[in-house]
Amino acid sequence: MIPPDADLDSQDAQIGRAVRAFLASGEAEGLLQTPSGEAVTAEQCVAALGALLSARDVAERGLHEMRERLDLAMHNIEGGVWDWDLTGNSIVIDSAWRKTLGYDELEYSSSGLAWVPLVHPHDLELMRNQVTAHLRDEVPYFETQFRIQAKSGGWRWVLARGKASNRAAPGLPAA
Fold first, then answer.
1. Does residue 170 carry a pLDDT above 60?
2. pLDDT confidence of residue 49
3. Cβ atoms within 10 A of the Cβ of 70, count?
């Protein structure tokens, strides 16, 4: 079994070894036995593997292009990405969001509440009300503007927008 986190070169090498062993096992008869019991020729096996590898390459290119478009869009709007795990009470904030506020990767933890003290006191209640309304399914998206304190001490206006996903039951985020 190939570990899913293995790099592509390692995955390719392991696949190559497995294919060579598989092909060698059926060399004498000219047919290979599939896990389902079907007999196939080595050429059929190689053609199927080629199609799978080709499809993987196409998917990887598409993913790379999509990431480039997202990076460009985020750069153009000076935006950042955040992901709040309500069940684990952690928030992942990308480097662009942190950079906009002047913080580096080591400042402020991933705890979901670590960033709350940076929200301007006059904006905190509205932000909490918007989050609550969304989690209760009263509004389709969480969306609010608020001020957050930058590392320099000044305030930056932020437009935050999000949508809860993986809900366990109507109105509740997933457990």
1. no
2. 80
3. 11
The DSSP symbol for 169 reads B
Q: For residue 43, give the amino acid letter.
A: E
Structure-model confidence comparison of residues 23 and 73, the more confident one: 73
* 28-48: average pLDDT: 73
Q: Which residues pair with 32 in a beta bridge?
A: 40
Dihedral sign of CA atoms 66, 140, 76, 93 in order: negative
Number of helices and strands in the chain (H, E): 4, 6
Q: 120-136: per-residue pLDDT in tens?
A: 999 999 988 998 898 88
Locate 27 and state its tokens. 């060399």
Question: 51 with 58: CB under 8 angstroms?
Answer: no
Q: What is the pLDDT of residues 81-90, one digit of tens each?
A: 777 777 777 7
pLDDT of residue 175 exceeding 50: no
As a whole number of angstroms, the distance between CA 109 and CA 115 comes to: 8
Q: Are strands 155-162 and 142-149 parallel, antiparallel or unpaired?
A: antiparallel
136, 163 Cβ separation under 8 angstroms: no
SS3 of 135, please?
helix
Question: Is 145 in contact with 158 (CB distance < 8 Å)?
Answer: yes
Under 8 Å between Cβ of 120 and 148: yes
What are phi and psi for residue 115, nearest 5 degrees?
Answer: -90, -15
